[in-house]
Amino acid sequence: MAVTSCASTALRTEPSSAEYSLSPDALxxxxxxLSSDDLAGREPGTEGDKDTTAYLVxxxxxxxxxxxxxxxxxxxxxxSLDEATVQTANVVxxxxxxxxxxxxxxxxxxxxxxxxCAESNDRICNSAVDNAxxxxxxxxxxxxxxxxxxxxxIIFLASGAEEEGLLGAKAFIEDPPVPLAQIEAAFxxxxxxARGYSDTVGILGEGLTSLDPLxxxxxxxxxxxxxxAEGTADFYRRSDHAxxxxxxxxxxxxxxxxxxxxxxFVTGAYAANHYHxxxxxxxxxxxxxGAAADGxxxxxxxxxxxxxxxxxxxxxNSIYQRP
Length: 323
Hints:
The chain is an alpha/beta fold. It has a single domain, classed as Aminopeptidase (3-Layer(aba) Sandwich). It is 30% helix and 20% strand. The protein is built from eight helices and eleven strands. The chain has helices at 24-34, 47-63, 128-147, 167-174, 212-221, 241-246, 269-273, 289-307, and strands spanning 66-67, 74-81, 84-95, 100-110, 115-116, 124-125, 152-159, 183-188, 200-204, 225-226, 251-255. The strands form two sheets. Strands 1, 2, 3, 4, 7, 8, 9, 10 and 11 form a nine-stranded mixed beta sheet that branches. Strands 5-6 form a two-stranded antiparallel sheet. Helix 1 (24-34) packs across helix 3 (128-147), helix 2 runs parallel beside helix 3 (128-147) and helix 3 packs across helix 8 (289-307).
């Protein structure tokens, strides 16, 4: 059994509930834009990819999040794709903390998609749920924090080239704009609108970090509880947060996707019928209430991290540890 320290969950003060709230309609609007045919699936190095990063820059600038990696928000890097070298970019923004700005919590969602798929009738893999939905939540979380900053700084990382091997997250780790030791925790946002609202959330990475009690506490304050579906652990290495884990930063995903039920991500209709297919399109069949609730919950967790006496850490039995 994983061992955690009681001190890791003790709070300096009892924080009042931030009561963050994300608009499902706002998420739907972002996803409709990001997954339109005009962007042709947001493959790295394409015009659709460039339009996507421009959209993200405009959104972060307008809501008041400031650049972190570079003055234009972009952290550019090159990748090999289809026997060519192409350039893409992470978009990195932050909202500075009011009390201890040198401390950071990071949220990451990949903005790239599948590009063109093999099907002959509709070749555009619009990548609405995977991962325009996570990108949309990232934008609206930044809007909430910009309007009501936390005591610590929050990094909003929209990563590129995740579908090519988590390459945007790796580019960030290789050239971090702040010391990795100051990033106390990283939370992934991937495929978050694959399921509607559930009052139960799962932890991808449960038992690996001292964050679990904070997740349970934040969930309870939000009228939800934690119950992670069987088989969830198999997905831990498949998204950007795993790159942060490899670098020693405590990293998890917290989402209703991995709660028990027939419609959980592992066995649900989205994974069976739409994942990495042209049918992953924006439309009325996507229920954004779960994604909105998950984004709000993550901000509640960040507020608890800010007020904890000690930063999150890996449990003693975890294969991951700080350097």
